[in-house]
Amino acid sequence: MTHTLLNLSEISDFDDEADVVVIGYGMAGACAALEARRSGGDVLVVERASAGGGSSAVSSGLFYLGGGTDVQKSAGYDDNAENMYRFMTASMGMEKAGHIRRYCDDNVAHFNWLEAQGVPFERSYYPDKAVFLLSTEGLMSTGNEKVWPYRDIATPAPRGHQVQMAGESPGARAMESLLARCEEEGIRTSYDSVATALIRDDDGAIVGVAIRQTGHNKYYRARRGVLLATGGFGMNKAMLAEYFPDLPDTAEPLGTPYTDGSGIMLGMAAGASTSGMDGMIATASIYPPGQLIKGIIVNTLGRRFVAEDSYHGRTASFIMEQPGQRAFLIVDADIFAYPEITTANHELVDGFDTIEEMEERLGMPVGSLVQTVKDYSHYAAQGCDPLLKKHPDWLKPLDQGPWAAFDISYNRSNYLYITLGGLQTTRDAQVMNDKGAVIPGLYAAGACSAHIPHCGKSYASGMSLGPGSYFGRVAGRVMMGNAAPLSENGA
Ligand SMILES: Cc1cc2nc3c(=O)[nH]c(=O)nc-3n(C[C@H](O)[C@H](O)[C@H](O)COP(=O)(O)OP(=O)(O)OC[C@H]3O[C@@H](n4cnc5c(N)ncnc54)[C@H](O)[C@@H]3O)c2cc1C
Q1: Theoretical Cys-Cys bridge with 28: which of 144, 448, 472, 483, CB 3.0 to 4.6 Å?
Q2: pTM for the complete prediction?
Q3: Which of 126, 258, 281, 470 is the pocket-test mutation for ligand 1 (most atoms within 8 Å of CB)?
Q4: Residues 6+ apart with CB under 8 A from 417
């Protein structure tokens, strides 16, 4: 599909018009539509599928939220906006400090808003290490908060808020509530409609969208603006080849088939700039079970390169950078277990009576792994890790043979990923051009806009649905001329 830009003068007649036209009915689109409607707008949502939901509805339903939500409080965690801001800017960088500030300041209000829409979060805490839950606990740790150096910069607090639904896709429960609200409140929809071009007036403002619907072209006018909320680009082979030339064949994108970057291309055709397009969060976690974190991860040189207690996406990012994209998890008999996420396909290389034998079998330089295990165990016995500062909770000498190695290489195991790059936006969700100026009438939110974390090293689970829902809301308000921060409006 090609994505173009049309001039208003080329359109003789519009088929429909609304104050706000939202393209894409996932998390970001639904939240934007609700806010624009509640600000008095007539809202029309254009959705390519026959129903709303998008990737949001097949997701694990984790929202990265904090600052002292009721779920955090009931689990006994004392978080606040400043603490959350310190962690996020330290781990995700200052590039989007404005977005982070606004997100953190409004986070408790945003959590309350989600609950008020009927998105349920159980008051319960899952204390172990997991990637996603099949049970209904409302809170777990999903980021690098306890990882050095962040634990010294901000007080660690769990911020992964899981929607209350057992099973693999609690995101469906969240979308069910939000879409029901949209319908109740009179948000109009145009399903089976693919947006193919934005429409620009002589002043350079985006004033509508062209769609293709059951073999016909249609044109919708947007009196106050168009919001792109079309998701990421993991299913677009050409974009993947351009932005991830080293992507191995074994890596697989997560999402629906429509996660193909069409909104990003629509924006680019209108002169939008992009950011972080080479960023992804990939995952093939070694945990659960948590005991495997007490092992060490080494490259083909027999060297450690990432603190093993890192968030699984951070570990994956470091593995991608190793020679040949290869890495091994080494454990002793004390902590041996198979990784529980079987889709990751981490292969047990073998068990070994000595580290020397293991080192030889893995083709590592003579003495390299032996020295690494010796040094690590020496310091672990004293409760410290001078090299990578793994948290003492996860330290133990690897001194109980036999030993085992799992091959967790990026190009052999099965890493699943989502893309993080997208359209460059202001903290008011306005799309920017390559000179840093706002393109009037064009907004973006969710996974088609650049995520706050621009790579897996700084990602935390929930950093798509959390900011996607929040900045969707911001867009809906701003488009209707209501720019006040959410918390000041008592949201
Ligand atoms: C299995 C899985 C688990 C995940 N778990 C989590 C999690 O727990 N927490 C988290 O934060 N993130 C998670 N993610 C990522 C997260 O789900 C997505 O990044 C997020 O849902 C994106 O939301 P969105 O509103 O931007 O886009 P989407 O929810 O993908 O919605 C985009 C919509 O736009 C439509 N569309 C696309 N192009 C067009 C077009 N040209 N015209 C009209 N309509 C169009 C699509 O059909 C779709 O309905 C997960 C993803 C997957 C696949």
Answers
A1: 472
A2: 0.97
A3: 258
A4: 234, 251, 252, 253, 254, 280, 281, 282, 283
